[in-house]
Design a protein that fits this description.
heterotrimer, A alpha/beta (about 260), B mainly alpha (about 325), C mainly alpha (about 300), A: about 260 residues, Rossmann fold, four-stranded antiparallel β-sheet, 10 helices, B: mainly alpha, two-stranded antiparallel sheet, globular
């Protein structure tokens, strides 16, 4: 089951990734692969190590053992900003916007990866610099427009209602133009109607921006409803992988959720 | 066609030059205070770049000012004096280069201080920058060729209205321009949430160092102006209390606000001049002000709700 | 060798004063997670209480009883001042960003210094003799009774502090609070009262430090707290902020290092040395010698 070489054509590949904090092994030799334009779910009971896996992919933690490849190039141990430069963007479990920045600037700042002009150019403010700034402003507007955030673009991000903050965080991540988008419990704190909206939104993003999405989620309905493949973690180990239908029936998964009906 | 911000800058420089031409008619004492205002604006605006916009609390700004003052002072008073006289070039023409040299010296020290310490956050960073500021002071006290703790005397008074306020205008422009761009939003993002900033691909260390070095550079310019205004500098004049004065200007004006900080720099310079006769009472007022401000209005006195509009030019 | 022993004793004596002050920094950081800048000025006030007690309030000094009375008085008054500072300036800011509290603390520190200059006068004052004094000579070694007294008093206070923190209910509550403030309030600890107590305790130690310092360096002024305060802070960081044994160890080390540096040709740099140590320790081992490291949760 554990292959040692990244499969060609796979977007993201985790190879026997392990991380220990002191004596505690939080994640133990997890391997997984993600393809282009795939919608994948990562589930597991509380404390299974889902967010830790996320944090290793995004460079917050460096794995103790194992390797992570993105587009067949190693990204193990790179700093978070360098990983985002490679094309992996994320959202956070407990929303982390730039609270005092306007909604507009929250998105605008994420375009910085695609700025060709240097910091020194913002002092000279030449013709090229201004043209590029105008272009970014237009693109920011366009992006806000798609997600119906234009109305509130000049408000500070912290004043937005919860649902809009979640959406803004996703929009901000999209502005870095990722090839892989990691969503950390996007449905947390949402009511059933909002969850349905969120599922639509995630599908829409995948189609519109042609990217892969990896989703850590608690809500089975959301995961089962939109993911094509699901990986299941328990106590830091991967216990199953498959389509939603396969996972629903998987004895180890059913046992892990201890009598809880997986498809509720 | 120049962008509007640069037109404003040019008009400001022209105005400064115009007023400067008539500065001989201004009373000496008043002129001295007014030139001090220009210098304090530079100090406050440059510290605001670090403490306000980038959210990295520095307590050692006077140290960088000292480096600039001593570097510039050495050029016009120390060994550089003979060379300038021999070159036959008018000192007034050379003065901007002297200031620039002071700024660059401070920037180099700023890089040396900032690169290791900016890994720290919050109060630890504050105390380390305070420590570096004191170390700079102690080192200057121990360099006999720079006058040791007696200081440097006989520095020519090259600082005119034009240089003081011209440099202030350039500082304000630079701080504004640096922050008002797509890359510039990064400074504010770092101040708001470093982890989120990293996740957006921002190299937070690089941003902090740019802010710190730029801030130190302008503090060095202010130091050069100060040296050539007062004619006398000593390490004790760049102590912790001097740093605190600049910090108070930034806090009073509202951290991360351009206009508020300039107003605060003007007001506090005038206020401390008015309170000069009261000696220690001045600092009592300052410190009480600081405490009350934090309790009642931590966002600063001169802040009002304003949405930052995206500007391309 | 004699030279070395002499410096060693001087260093231990100075270091135990730093340790007393450092404990205050560390305890407050433990419960509130901020650097109490005003702590060094409470130390200064301790020295001035001693001065006024003897010169103005007529407490007879020079004997053991009088000296101890002055020491206790300084500790009590400083404890009250510490509690008052927390109550008036820091408590209203509970829950605000660390930076706001830090700025307020700087404000309080400046206020105390300048009120001090205004009330006590800026000129240095000669600190009166509190205890009977004698010089002990062991060969070429010269030890003053004050130095021994400093070491003895510091030791007693350290033991007393250890007892309070580890053997009393309030001490246990203090430790619980510094471990997890939310949880401690959930189990019925009155956090505000424990914080007050911590400030009182730390400030009492600073007051004692002020008296002991003034006994060995008998010229006091309202700005005298700054340098010892900063060095004690460095000591707290060196030992690991939040760790009481760490603060004591750090204080001793800083005292020793400073004394030995001053004994060499680098004496003009003695004040810079503490900062150099601070910078090095924060860069190489931010958790300090005996501290535990913390990291941000994502």
């Amino acid at each position: 089951m554990n292959s040692t070489h990244p499969k060609p054509g796979r977007l993201l590949h985790l190879d026997n990734v392990t991380i220990r904090f002191g004596g505690l092994t939080a994640v133990s030799s997890v391997s997984a692969s993600l393809g282009e334009n795939e919608l994948t779910g990562l589930i597991g009971p509380n404390g299974a190590g889902k967010t830790t896996v996320f944090n290793m992919i995004t460079g917050v933690y460096a794995p103790t053992e194992g390797a992570i490849h993105f587009e067949n190039r190693p990204v193990t141990g790179l700093k978070p900003f360098a990983i985002t430069e490679r094309g992996i963007a994320r959202t956070f479990q407990n929303i982390r916007l730039f609270p005092s920045l306007s909604v507009f600037d929250n998105v605008r700042v994420a375009f910085h990866l695609h700025v060709t002009q240097s910091t020194a150019h913002s002092l000279t403010r030449g013709r090229k610099f201004r043209a590029e700034e105008r272009e970014i402003i237009d693109r920011t507007r366009a992006l806000l427009d798609i997600f119906q955030l234009t109305r509130v673009q000049d408000e500070p991000a912290k004043s937005l209602p919860y649902g809009d903050q979640r959406r803004l965080e996703i929009v901000r991540a999209l502005a870095t133009r990722p090839k892989l988008l990691l969503l950390d419990e996007p449905a947390a704190g949402m009511n059933p109607a909002e969850k349905v909206e969120l599922m639509k939104l995630i599908r829409f993003i995948r189609e519109k921006f042609r990217l892969s999405i990896l989703l850590v989620e608690h809500d089975m309905k959301v995961v089962m409803g939109i993911c094509e493949r699901i990986h299941v973690l328990e106590y830091g180990r991967k216990i199953a992988e498959g389509t939603p239908a396969e996972i629903r029936q998987h004895p180890a998964v059913v046992a892990a959720y201890l009598g809880k009906e997986v498809n509720h | 066609m120049l962008p509007r911000s640069q037109i404003v800058l040019l008009i400001s420089l022209a105005t400064a030059g115009f007023i400067s031409a008539f500065s001989s008619r201004i009373d000496d004492y008043i002129l001295d205070v007014v030139l001090g205002i220009g210098i304090n604006i530079i100090l406050a605006v440059s510290l605001n770049l670090i403490n306000g916009f980038t959210g990295q609390f520095s307590l050692g700004h006077a140290g960088f000012m000292a480096v600039g003052a001593y570097a510039a002072g050495t050029l016009t008073t120390g060994p550089g004096k003979a060379w300038i006289a021999a070159s036959g070039i008018s000192p007034a023409v050379l003065f901007p280069f002297v200031l620039l040299a002071g700024g660059l010296a401070a920037a180099v020290v700023g890089l040396a201080v900032g690169a290791p310490s900016l890994r720290l956050k919050g109060d630890y960073l504050a105390i380390v920058t305070l420590g570096f500021g004191e170390i700079i002071k102690v080192i200057l006290q121990n360099i006999e060729s720079l006058g040791g703790s007696r200081g440097m005397v006989g520095i020519p008074s090259y600082t005119t209205f034009f240089w003081s306020f011209g440099a202030a205008a350039i500082t304000i422009y630079a701080a504004w321009a640096l922050v008002n761009s797509t890359l510039g939003c990064g400074f504010l993002a770092v101040a708001d949430d470093e982890i989120a900033a990293e996740a957006m691909g921002l190299n937070t260390t690089r941003y902090k160092i740019i802010a710190f070095v730029t801030g130190a550079f302008f503090a060095g310019i202010a130091g050069g102006l100060y040296a050539h205004l007062k004619g006398y500098i000593s390490p004790a004049g760049f102590d912790f209390n001097r740093s605190i004065e600049i910090v108070i200007m930034v806090i009073l004006g509202g951290m991360g606000r351009h206009v508020g900080v300039v107003i605060a720099a003007v007001l506090l310079t005038v206020l401390s001049e008015k309170l000069r006769d009261f000696g220690d009472k001045r600092m009592i007022v300052y410190s009480a002000l600081l405490i009350l401000l934090m309790l009642a209005r931590p966002q600063g006195l001169f802040t009002w709700k304003s949405a930052r509009k995206a500007i391309a030019g | 060798m004699t030279e070395f022993l002499q410096q060693l004793i001087n260093g231990i004596s100075l270091g135990s004063i730093y340790a007393l002050i450092a404990l205050g920094y560390t305890m407050v950081y433990g419960v509130l997670r901020f650097i109490n800048f005003a702590h060094s000025d409470v130390f200064m006030l301790g020295a001035f209480v001693g001065y006024y007690a003897v010169r103005k309030w007529g407490i007879p000094a020079g004997g053991v009883a009088g000296g101890l009375l002055v020491l206790c008085l300084a500790m009590s008054i400083c404890a009250l001042i510490g509690i008052l500072i927390e109550r008036l300036a820091y408590r209203p800011l509970r829950g605000r960003p660390t930076l706001s509290v830090l700025i307020t603390a700087i404000g309080v520190s400046l206020l105390l210094q300048n009120l001090g200059q205004s009330i006590f006068g800026a000129n240095p004052k000669a600190f009166p003799r509190l205890f009977p004094e004698a010089n002990l000579h062991l060969g070429q070694l010269s030890i003053t009774s004050n130095q021994l007294l400093v070491i003895a008093v510091s030791l007693i206070l350290l033991v007393a502090l250890h007892f309070i923190v580890h053997r009393t209910k309030t001490g246990t509550a203090m430790r619980a609070l510094s471990f997890n403030a939310t949880a401690s309030s959930l189990v019925g600890i009155n956090n505000d009262r424990i914080i007050s107590f911590t400030f009182g305790l730390g400030s009492a130690l600073a007051g004692a430090g002020g008296i002991l310092y003034a006994m060995n360096y008998p010229s006091i002024d309202p700005l005298m707290g700054t340098m010892p305060g900063l060095k004690a802070f460095v000591a707290a960081v060196l030992g690991g902020v939040g760790s009481l044994p760490g603060a004591a160890l750090g204080g001793l080390l800083i005292g020793l290092i400073e004394t030995f540096v001053a004994g060499t040709g680098w004496s003009t740099y003695r004040d810079a040395v503490a900062f150099a140590i601070l910078i090095l320790i924060l860069l190489l081992r931010p958790a300090g010698l005996l501290g535990k490291s913390r990291s941000d949760k994502v």
